[in-house]
Amino acid sequence: MSVATTTARDTVRIATGKSRERSTGSLVFLGLLWFSLFFGVMVLVVLIADTAIAGAGRFDPALVTRYDSTLFPERTGFRAGILGSLWLMLFTALMAVPLGIAAAVYLEEFADSRRWYNRIIEVNLQNLAAVPSIVYGLLAVAVMALIGIERKGIVLGGAIALALLILPVIIITTREAVRAVPEEIRQGSLALGATTWQTTWRQVLPSAVPGIATGTILGLSRAIGEAAPLLMLGLASSVRFDPEGLMSPITALPIQIYGLSSNSQEAFQDAASAAIIVLLVMILGMNALAIFIRNKFQRSW
Amino acid sequence: MKRTSNRWAIASCTAVLALTLAACGGGDAGADAGDGGSGASGTVAVDGSSTVEPMSKAASELLSEENPDVRVTVGAAGTGGGFEVFCQGQTDISDASRPIEEDEVAACEEGGVEYTELQVATDALTVAVHPDLAVDCLTTEQLVELFGPQSKVTNWSELDPSFPDQEISLFIPGTDSGTYDYMAADVVADESEELRKDVESSEDDNVLVQGISGTEGAVGFFGYTYYEENQDSLKALAIDDGNGCVEPSAETAQAGEYTPLSRPLFIYVSNASYADNPATQEYVDFYVENLETIAEAAKFIPLSEDLYAETQSALEGLSS
């Protein structure tokens, strides 16, 4: 038996983790891997459990149906924040999804990547995805000033900030989804006499729907947890009415949580913990929807 | 072809949803614009001091029970941050835990915002000790020496030779409380805006009271109204800010004698908004009318009759 085969066999055994003759080094390494996994998961579990226990006393209807209350801390609710966040998500999606998909389709199907301006757009997109969220808040403040809207803390401003925030994510995931559509589909369509536009609209985009939907929802579930850019836009911490239009002043769930968690009264801190769980449930719900859409509409070629 | 039809179902549903929402948005924006003239309804934007925030929120909460059409948003950007947007005309009312400063007056002039200052309550801290401790009065310097972040004082006799030879235990509100902020930022006024760390700290004022009343040589502080409720088990220290020792009481706090542990709290109302926006007018009128209830709900000292009369006459000046 040559040296090479022995080594190869050992490697296979170690890699599958089933070898009985493991060296100390590999055991230590395996231990480290387990520890890393354990550490990451445990921190998360402990955090969520701790929050859930702190908020356990507040999982009642008042938590989601009532407005915030200064006079009765044990009955304070997050109705305005939950509705505000939902409205923000809707208008964020309305702004970001068409723009994002159009930009991605242009870059994938129409743009000539040898042109300098297209390359600049690509580099910018990659960088934008890594910009801290508060910068998008500043950007949205500038946009609002530019279009001449002076009112602070309204749906429109928040939605612009969050739409800018998730636009790069949507563009990048949509491009991946469009790229995953086999070239043969396009060539077949073109060979039958369809134009590039017809091919894109009738063949490529429908096939890419699962990927686009998944990316969009994951982007939105990032946006729903953001507080920093919304604080920049002056969203109030206390609102006692439901949002009812683009120009309606609102608050958002993360902002209410932020405000209450630093309150010295224990009843408010417990309410904040319960609201964190509500926010987590909302995010998990959105992620579940993304997985559902991906599984239901995925096609294999 | 089933899959294809599913995809189109999704696409068309999304489109319908989008259109419905757009229609909703448009209709409501129209309704919003019509709000201005229809009596007491509309939107009031309040921002500013996080100390005054509970009062403004309580006022909004009480008013919403009587008139839900007046829609109030309350923010807590801090006194300075509040004035910044107020002077640009972006808010109707600015909460403040200090009088407006010169550069802010200039900013408001530049922004063309005329305002009226209304005092709404008095905020006061009380430094309390164990009832048997033979200390009655501290100077402001001694307060800083006792609570400051660099403090190494562990025995009362180190603070002043005439004080008893007794070890000090400190009981301090949690760092999230407004009381802590007030002591750290405005009284001790160290750059770090922190107090010393070798202390018992609790967000629960009851724990502080029990700690102080049960430990010899203990000292701590909390809001004046809380001391008032527990004065049987505690001894409050008088404070000497250069003009002799002043006992903490609602009167000395309101008269501005109990410094630096008391301060007036204000709301600044935009004159233009009060005149043009019936919602602002209703909110401010309601606020002043129910000032005592609101101040007590937020655990501040309500205004004395004289001060209340001053606030009322300022409000009348605003109306005319």
From TrEMBL, chain A:
Transmembrane segments: 27-49, 85-107, 127-147, 154-173, 271-293
SUPFAM superfamilies given in the database record: MetI-like
Membrane topology according to the record: Multi-pass membrane protein
Pfam families the UniProt entry points to: BPD_transp_1
Keywords: Cell membrane, Membrane, Transmembrane, Transmembrane helix, Transport
Location in the cell: Cell membrane
Domain ABC transmembrane type-1, chain residue ranges per copy: 82-290
Top-level taxonomic group: Bacteria
Family annotation (Gene3D superfamilies): MetI-like
InterPro entries named among the record's database cross-references: MetI-like, MetI-like_sf, Phosphate_PstA
NCBIfam families according to UniProt: 3a0107s02c (TIGR00974)
Function of the protein: Part of the binding-protein-dependent transport system for phosphate; probably responsible for the translocation of the substrate across the membrane.
Protein family according to the UniProt entry: Belongs to the binding-protein-dependent transport system permease family. CysTW subfamily.
Name listed for the protein in its UniProt record: Phosphate transport system permease protein PstA
Organism: Nocardioides astragali
Gene: pstA
UniProtKB/TrEMBL annotation, chain B:
PROSITE patterns for the chain: PROKAR_LIPOPROTEIN
Domain of life where this protein originates: Bacteria
Protein name as catalogued: Phosphate-binding protein
PANTHER family reported in the protein's UniProt record: PERIPLASMIC PHOSPHATE BINDING COMPONENT OF PHOSPHATE ABC TRANSPORTER, PHOSPHATE-BINDING PROTEIN PSTS
InterPro entries listed in its UniProt record: PBP_domain, Phos-bd, Phosphate_ABC_transporter
UniProt family annotation: Belongs to the PstS family.
Pfam families according to UniProt: PBP_like_2 (PF12849)
Domain PBP, first and last residues per copy: 35-288
Residues of the signal peptide: 1-25
Keywords: Phosphate transport, Signal, Transport
Function: Involved in the system for phosphate transport across the cytoplasmic membrane.
